[in-house]
Amino acid sequence: MADELGIELHANTRIPDDYYMLSDAELDARILAAKAQLGEQVVLLGHHYQGARVVQWADFTGDSFKLAQLAVTKSTARYIVFCGVHFMAETADVLSPDGTSVILPDLGAGCSMADMADERQVDTCWSMLQERFPTTKIIPITYMNSTAALKAFCGENDGAVCTSSNAEGILNWAFARGEKVLFFPDQHLGRNTGYKMGIPLEQMVVYNPLFGDFECTDEQLENARIILWKGFCSVHQKFSVEQAQEVRSRYPGMKVIVHPECALDVVLAADHVGSTEYIIKMVEESPAGSQWAIGTEINLVHRLAETQKDKLILSLSGPNVCPCATMYRISPQHLCWALENLAEGRVVNQVKVAPDIRHWAGVALQRMLAITK
Ligand code: SF4
Q1: Are strands 101-103 and 79-83 parallel, antiparallel or unpaired?
Q2: Is the CB of residue 145 below 6 angstroms from any atom belonging to ligand 1?
Q3: Residues with Cβ < 8 Å from 282, sequence gap 6 or more?
């Protein structure tokens, strides 16, 4: 298959075995050469949760919100090679201009939380809510960690996308337009944000997509302001209050900082809560000698420990590390293979969102960017 410019298109999750025979030095040299040959035609975006051997090649790093902004502002390149997971590459494709190709070096790099909500399940929940509350304005809000199809659902139904750095602003925007919010797929980000805004816990109920039912009484649903999808991040849900107590007992000056994808009890036990960018800023700007136990993905914690050597930086989970397994799928071998193919005129593993979905997902994403300005 070829695109309109005659560039060959290929999709693959399995790369030639030869790439696995290369030494680290050989891989680095080949990535460097391919990147140099492509020059300004290519921009590499890397999520903070990538391993060091991949993120070292990124032209820009960020969390999902910052990378979405970069897809808009840095997309003069013909190719965006996205070192992240599938929903991020979809977002980059939606936000980048026509003619830009977005490449995910391993198409198997997904997000288990994003997989916890699909179109059919959201349609089912939405129909039940519309039937139950025909005169109530309900605003659908999806976390960035969701498929482009669900972002399009929000765009088409007067809703928006949010990230962990702007969820409160987006919920305020939603409540200025409607009485209830359907929030998917991460129950924890929705609950933590609602709680911070002063919404009582009893006014936040849970919808279970596996059973297609609300985990509450009719009266609780009637009074609910936020309907939370029963999804979670397997990495962040593992952090516990006991871990916070344990690390404080060992290091009396230790500050605990966690991501809002953690459960509410962990968030309440922490000293600070915020997005990945917030965590980085807090730690980097803290004085020498500061001590941090961080409740987020381990690659980021390792990177901060390496760059902030005048501080004590630990994972909140101690030696029982919790990596994001799907981010690890972007290996230096996949990156090398994708770049070398591009340098030879072959676009491999392009992520392209269908035009109708692209339109409405773009509406939801642009609403988020406009609200967050
Ligand atoms: S850390 Fe969790 S939410 Fe983030 S990409 Fe990995 S599985 Fe998804």
Answers
A1: parallel
A2: yes
A3: 257, 272, 274
114-233 adopts what CATH topology?
Rossmann fold (3.40.50)
Asked whether this chain's domains 8-111+328-355 and 236-315 adopt the same fold, the reply is yes
CATH class of 236-315: alpha beta
Confidence of residue 63 (pLDDT cuts 50, 70, 90): confident
235 lines ligand 1 (CB under 6 A): yes
> Is the model's pTM score more than 0.90?
yes
Burial of 261 (0-12, 13-18, 19+ CB in 10 A): buried
Boundaries of every domain in the chain: 8-111+328-355, 114-233, 236-315
Predicted confidence (pLDDT) per residue in 125-150, tens digit: 999 999 999 999 999 999 999 999 99
Index of the ligand 1 atom closest to the CA of residue 261: 3
Query: Looking up tokens 């200025």, which residue turns up?
Result: 176
Which two three-digit tokens encode residue 331? Answer: 């290996």
Q: Domain 8-111+328-355: which topology?
A: Rossmann fold (3.40.50)
Report H helices in the chain: 18-21, 24-38, 52-55, 64-73, 86-95, 119-132, 148-156, 167-175, 187-196, 218-223, 241-250, 264-269, 276-285, 298-307, 332-343, 355-372
Cα angle value 344/46/331 (rounded, 5°): 65
Band of pLDDT at residue 2, cut at 50, 70 and 90 = very low
Atom number of ligand 1 nearest to Cα 47: 5
Is the model's pLDDT at 115 over the cut of 50? yes
Structure tokens at 288: 């020498």
| Ligand 1 pocket: which of 85, 162, 322 to mutate (most atoms within 8 A of CB) | 85
Average pLDDT, the chain: 93
Q: How confident is the model at residue 328 (pLDDT cuts 50, 70, 90)?
A: confident
Per-residue pLDDT of 221-271, as tens digits, reads 999 999 999 999 999 999 999 999 999 999 999 999 999 999 999 999 999
**pLDDT at position 3, please?**
44
